[in-house]
Write a structure and sequence with these properties.
It is a single chain. It contains 17 helices and 17 strands. It has an 8-stranded parallel β-sheet. The protein has a 3-stranded mixed β-sheet with strand order 6-14-15, with no helix packed on it. A two-stranded antiparallel sheet has the order 5-7. The protein has one domain: Alpha-Beta Barrel (TIM Barrel). About 30% of the residues lie in helices and about 15% in strands. It is globular. Helix 3 crosses helix 5 and helix 5 packs parallel to helix 6.
């Protein structure tokens, strides 16, 4: 199979949504939807009235009509809720999720992939985070039901995912080992998903998608190629210039004069060793120029993954007024991107775009009352009685400490879940009419967005990005 030259990155919560992935795929490259919080995205879009009817059309194609109808009965509001009213909550994840949450996860992923693939023959991928473990199995199954062509996963070491894809494609039950803080030696915990139990009968055989691991080192590539539970089909080699979560620097953490993690030569992936594995790979992180693409090809890469350039194009899911502000500031070189070592509850460095009226600003951060009502980045921990509990350094400090968390971990932690939902216009209205502020992430290329603008325009499309990147002759691998 011929792989794409350009992979459009799977970004944020709903930034890489189906219109963007569909636009890229229709143009012959790999469009990728973000698989993060698609249960939340589906539920909240239905509560806005599902403008255009796209999600209802996708739910009508879902192979289990009863599941689709229950979701519509629970969340769909004809004409949409009032903007001053809060969204109805979705169930929070656990190692033993409710039937309602499992249905919403499967259907949410199905809907996003179905719409991205609808009406064309292009390839579509979905991106997941290894760190977000609880929803992974039903989310993967929903994507497979819709015929997803690629699964990409980073933010951890996804050793078990290739084998899980094999099992789910065959309709077999699968389980994933859950990372649990405080687990006793030899004690293991799992999440499980059984396609037959979910569907109430023998499940259909499904296409097993290509699996691409997102990595930051040759050591990790070698480990996955040799020891993963199934076939690894390639790698996205991501450098620290990429947006969102970054791999921590190797060795003891050192901060630069701005308080950001300092990366050095040890953090540069050894491409010769990665190339020697004989598997396709793509480079990511400030690769969105024809020259960088050509250089990647000359180093043996299939091509590049591009995120930030697509994140601010017309088809992306970022709220329109926020996107316009960022594009204008980029053209004037007035953007400040900060690699925050504390913001993410995962402990991974996280790139935050500093913007007025967003959670990046100290006064906005200080004014927000801590609440953990989404919980995608909660960590599982073992209680004294052997049961599992869940805690997040971004939740109210007293709650986190009461659950046995280290008070020092709460310092500087931001609610990425709520912030990213607000970035796409789906922010929650909390108590006392408090509207959750946006939190925008981007890669270092955010200051160079003007390169994609056609003459006389103040915005650009996914097609404009691809025209720019593919304008020069690309030498073969």
């Amino acid at each position: 199979m011929a792989h794409p030259i350009i992979i459009q990155g799977g970004m944020g919560v709903g930034v890489s949504h189906w219109p963007l992935a569909r636009a890229v795929s229709q143009l012959g490259q790999l469009g990728v939807v973000s698989g993060t919080a698609l249960d939340l995205v589906l539920a909240r879009q239905l509560q806005t009235g599902d403008p255009g009817g796209d999600r209802r059309r996708a739910l009508a194609a879902f192979p289990l009509p009863g599941v689709a109808q229950r979701i519509l009965d629970t969340y769909f509001i004809p004409g949409g809720k009032a903007s001053t009213k809060p969204f109805k909550p979705v169930p929070m994840g656990s190692s033993e999720p409710s039937r309602a949450l499992t249905e919403l996860l499967v259907a949410g992923n199905f809907v996003e992939v179905f719409l991205a693939k609808e009406g064309h023959a292009g390839k579509v991928g979905i991106n997941f985070l290894q760190k977000v473990q609880l929803p992974t199995l039903p989310s993967l199954y929903g994507a497979l039901l819709a015929g997803v062509d690629y699964v990409l996963m980073g933010a951890g070491i996804p050793m078990a995912i290739p084998g899980v894809l094999d099992q789910l494609a065959r309709g077999e039950a699968a389980r994933l080992r859950l990372d649990v803080e405080g687990a006793a030696p030899g004690e293991e915990f799992y999440t499980q998903f059984d396609p037959a139990a979910f569907g109430g009968g023998p499940p259909p055989p499904l296409q097993r998608p290509h699996f691409l691991a997102i990595i930051a080192s040759a050591v990790l590539a070698l480990t996955l190629a040799r020891k993963a539970s199934g076939r690894v089909d390639g790698f996205v080699v991501e450098g620290p210039a990429a947006g969102g979560h970054n791999a921590p620097p190797r060795g003891p953490l050192q901060l630069n004069e701005r308080g950001e993690p300092a990366y050095g030569p040890r953090d540069t992936p050894d491409l010769e060793k990665i190339r020697a594995l004989g598997l396709p790979f793509w480079l990511a992180g400030s690769e969105a120029t024809p020259a960088r693409l050509a250089a990647a090809r000359q180093q043996g890469a299939e091509g590049v993954q591009v995120g930030t350039a697509f994140a601010f194009c017309e088809e992306s899911g970022i709220e329109a007024r926020l996107k316009a502000r960022i594009l204008a500031a980029s053209q004037q070189r007035r953007l400040d991107l900060f690699t925050d070592p504390l913001a993410s509850p995962t402990g991974f460095p996280f790139k935050v775009l500093r913007l007025a009226e967003t959670a990046s600003e100290p006064e906005v951060f200080a004014a927000r009352r801590r609440v953990c009502d989404l919980g995608y980045l909660r960590r599982a921990y073992r209680k004294a009685d052997g049961r599992l509990g869940y805690r997040c350094p971004g939740e109210p400090e007293a709650q986190f400490i009461a659950k046995g968390g280290d008070p020092a971990e709460t310092a500087g932690r931001k609610c990425i879940c709520n912030g990213l939902a607000a970035t796409i216009g789906l922010g929650q209205i909390q108590a006392q009419d408090y509207a959750e502020p946006a939190l925008v992430t981007a890669g270092q290329d955010v200051t160079e967005l003007q390169r994609f603008l056609p003459p006389g325009r103040d915005n650009y499309s996914a097609a404009d990005v691809l025209r720019y990147l593919l304008a020069e002759a690309i030498p073969p691998v």
